[in-house]
Amino acid sequence: MSSSKIWLSSPHIGKNELRYVNEAFETNWIAPLGPNISAFEKELEVITNTRSAAAISSGTSAIHLALILLGVKSGDHVFCQSMTFCATANPIVYQGAIPVFIDSERDTWNMDPNLLRTALRESRSKNKLPKAIISVHLYGMPSKMSAILAVAKEFNVPVIEDAAEALGSEINNKPCGGFGDFGILSFNGNKVITTSGGGALLSNDPEMIEKARFLATQARDAAPHYEHSQIGYNYRMSNVLAGIGRGQLEVLNDRVEARRRNFERYKKYFIKYNDVGFNIRFQEAPSGYHSNRWLTCILVDPTFNNGLSREEIRLELELENIEARPLWKPMHQQPVFLNAKRYLNGVSDKLFEDGLCLPSGSNLAEEEFERIFECLDRIFSKYQNI
Taking the CB of residue 252, how many other CB atoms lie within 10 A of it? Predict the structure, then answer.
């Protein structure tokens, strides 16, 4: 295998990040505070149209802080989208709370509002309503937030909006991250923009975000010595990493447009096979939805593709040093959550069975696309006349 690796979603660093990082070094602002942190948070507020943002160490820690601020404690229930990465669900367990998983709807692949209502009705009948609901914008595709928020309001349950994969996505021109009681972002190395590692907690309640900053800085009380009346966490982002984030935010629109072009290019490519009897499907955006297309994902049902499966495509790409991955394995299928209560309709199980994420980085080169398509052409040629 001599060809260089084509990654699923590699970091895409530009020219301005180093300027902000150098400023941090030149001014000796290396700690988890400083001018880059303050500016980065203000810039995130503008981009997400939220009143307040706290830059912290990861999207996972943002969810954890949101749960703490909502008063989630041991034994409480938290409803969580099943079709997601484990980082959405793990903080529930950090608090000793009990995750309850809600399946997806077919349109956006995100939390099914009707199933959510069924679960909430049953919970209310048992006098055990959840303390929070965590919805997710999967692969950058916004959830049906208006319906989810309406159901949540009906039962008076707050919503944490996991927008880790959705910076730059919108619903009717409103940015994702600002719909719920809290929104969370991730700047992990594979996201639309990165700070190497990092995340943010968003809210339209500045007082709550100030509490989050306090908890994220080891909950140090105002005193000349180290005084702690609450348990805190080492969750603040460093001023150096925030400098990377500032440079990345300057090119956010370019990065989103590059990923959206990737999606359109894949969609155009697969038309030629769908026109001759295959049925490769995509995560389609409802009217008014603008997805950042963080990852381009396809569904390959062998029944409608002459026996071709997503796993055969994945393995053939792997042989050519091209990274592709199955969709997230639903949380209700994960060994660690096998005993968790769940409300299912079969959608996420089928998505996991048939779904594949294709290389989607904003820095994909022309020759890399050519390699991907050459490999796919060989795969489809085997099945075209079966």
Answer: 16
The domain at 253-383 falls in which architecture? Alpha-Beta Complex (3.90)
CA-based nearest residue to 341, from 179, 155, 167, 128: 128
Residue 233 has a CB neighbour count (10 Å cut-off) of 18
Contact 205, 51 (CB under 8 A): yes
pLDDT in tens, 126-171: 999 999 999 999 999 999 999 999 999 999 999 999 999 999 999 9
190, two tokens: 């594979």
Helices of type H across the chain: 17-26, 35-48, 59-69, 86-94, 113-125, 145-155, 206-216, 239-249, 252-274, 310-319, 347-354, 366-383
Kindly give the residue spans of alpha helices, DSSP state H, lying in 3-96.
Answer: 17-26, 35-48, 59-69, 86-94
The predicted model gives 65-90 an average pLDDT of 98
- For residue 234, list its beta bridge partners: 217
The listed CATH number (3.40.50.720, 3.40.50.12780, 3.40.640.10, 3.40.930.10) that belongs to domain 17-251? 3.40.640.10
